[in-house]
Amino acid sequence: MDRKKELKELYKQMKPPMGVYVIRSNFSKKCFLEATNNLKGRLNSTKVKLENNFHPNRELQKDWNEHGEGSFTFEILEELEYAKDDSKTDYSDDLALLHMEWEEKMAAAGYEFYNKSFGARKHD
User: Fold this and answer.
1) Pair 56, 32: CB distance under 8 Å
2) Which stretches of the chain are DSSP H helices?
3) I need a labelling partner for 105 at 20 to 30 A (CA). Which of 25, 48, 76, 120 fits?
4) N- to C-terminal Cα distance for the chain?
5) Rounded to whole angstroms, how far apart are CA atoms 123 and 37?
6) How far is it, in rounded angstroms, from Cα 33 to Cα 113?
7) What are the structural domains of the chain?
8) Per DSSP, what are the bridge partners of residue 31?
9) How confident is the model over 107-119, as pLDDT tens digits?
10) What whole-number distance in Å separates Cα of residue 44 and Cα of residue 107?
């Protein structure tokens, strides 16, 4: 197998950490909650979007612009485990359920959501 095919096959077998993360405002009881099948990639992407003023959630972007990065805390709340066998490949329902569970926990703790108007987020 040539190197390019080998790398492509290795990439297909990668299993990045997936789960739910939150961006908490340090100046209010607001947060941005999202589930994703690639926590590291999504966190990096979200931070880049906020730093470059093109995050799709305008309310979060506005607060970020006004208060700065130091006014927010990024936290992974829970990682979702992969199935023991490799037959399962679609975790979107599991991620949606995990998102709902954390939304309930955060609401019970008195948090409001930046992304509440967006409904369930896409889990990519």
Assistant:
1) no
2) 3-13, 39-51, 58-67, 92-108
3) 48
4) 30
5) 6
6) 7
7) 16-118 (3.40.1440.10)
8) 24, 113
9) 999 999 997 544 4
10) 25
Half-sphere exposure of 41 (CA within 13 A, CB side): 10
pLDDT at residue 30 greater than cutoff 60:
yes
Cα dihedral sign for 116, 35, 79, 50? Answer: negative
pLDDT-wise least confident of 28-32, 63-67, 85-89: 85-89
- Please give the structure tokens belonging to residue 17: 């950490």
How many Å apart are CA 71 and CA 73, to the nearest integer? 7
Q: What distance lies between CA 109 and its chain's CA centroid?
A: 19
pLDDT at 27: 96
pTM equals: 0.82
Amino acid identity for residue 12 in this structure: K
d(CA 38, CA 18): 5
- The pLDDT of residue 2 is 83
Percent residues over pLDDT 90 in the chain: 73
